[in-house]
Amino acid sequence: MRYETILLDIADGVATITLNRPDKLNSFNDQMHAEIRDALNQAQADKAVRCVILTGAGRGFCAGQDLSDRQMGNDDGAKIDLGDTIERLYNPLVRTIAGLEMPVICAVNGIAAGAGANVALSCDIVLAARSAAFLEPFCKLGLVPDAGGTWSLTHRVGVARAKGLALLGDKLPAEKAEQWGLIWKCVDDDALMDEAKTIAAQLAAGPTVGYGFIKQAIHAAVDNDLDTQLDLERDLQRQAGRTADYREGVSAFLEKRKPVFKGE
């Protein structure tokens, strides 16, 4: 696929996807959805890729849905099916990110609003520039946070803060997002991509299959009771113990050397 709304760079085991509609604050349209999904599928299919970075071009990460794609007259409200948009575009994107068998880093370089904020929060490790902010403006349009927003907010910062963010639609600065545990780390603006690349390099050189199991276990822990989670950990550990990376990790530890993982 020829990309017009994103950039894709693959190097040293890392696929970097850059949302590239800076004149529209990288807001989503149907074409961008198709291109991001294609890029993520490429990353998943390429055995050399072992980590993904998602970021935005220009002064913002993503302003959410491009509302100019939805011209609506006074009598058209009943004819518009926003649930169809979510079912076809946003839900598959969030599920693809969550289901990737490798870590996904989001580097939020400016405002992350609406679905842009929630897609960012669907990633495994979220970094944000100090000048960045997260915003859930759905309430100002009479809508509900989507793209997993109600799930991410509730599970990461709790019911009280989730309701405050969703019902008031106030900006949450990156520093406070870190303090609340909504994101992994807030960094200086000029250090954002260096930090993302450093973490990505570490992950790309790590035991990729094991990382996939970690993602699976943590996602399941949200709904599992303790007994079910203990059984899942047992089953995943059984699989992890049969990987080449586990054997390499043990050998390297015993030989007092740095392991050379191959993601197998």
Structural write-up:
This protein has 264 residues and is α/β, with parallel strands linked by helices. It has 2 domains: 6-204, 2-enoyl-CoA Hydratase, Chain A, domain 1, CATH 3.90.226.10; 208-254, Lyase 2-enoyl-coa Hydratase, Chain  A, domain 2, CATH 1.10.12. It has 10 helices and 10 strands. Strand 1 and strand 2 (14-19) form a beta hairpin. The longest helix is centred in the middle third of the chain and has 18 residues, at 82-99. The radius of gyration is 19 Å and the shape is globular.
Q: From N to C, what is the helix and strand string?
A: EEHEEHEEHEEHHEHEHHHH
**CATH topology of the largest domain, anyone?**
2-enoyl-CoA Hydratase, Chain A, domain 1
- CATH homologous superfamily placement of the largest domain: 2-enoyl-CoA Hydratase, Chain A, domain 1
Task: Quickly count the helices.
Answer: 10
Q: Quick one: biggest sheet?
A: 6 strands, mixed
Low-confidence stretches: none
Estimate the mean pLDDT confidence. Answer: 93
State the end-to-end distance: 28 Å
| Count of distinct structural domains | 2
Strand order of the largest sheet: 1-2-3-5-7-10
Percent helix: 40-55%
Q: Give the number of DSSP strands.
A: 10
Percent of sequence in beta strands: 15-25%
What is the class of the largest domain in the CATH system? Answer: Alpha Beta
Rg from Cα: 19 Å
SS class: alpha/beta
Shape: globular
CATH architecture of the largest domain: Alpha-Beta Complex
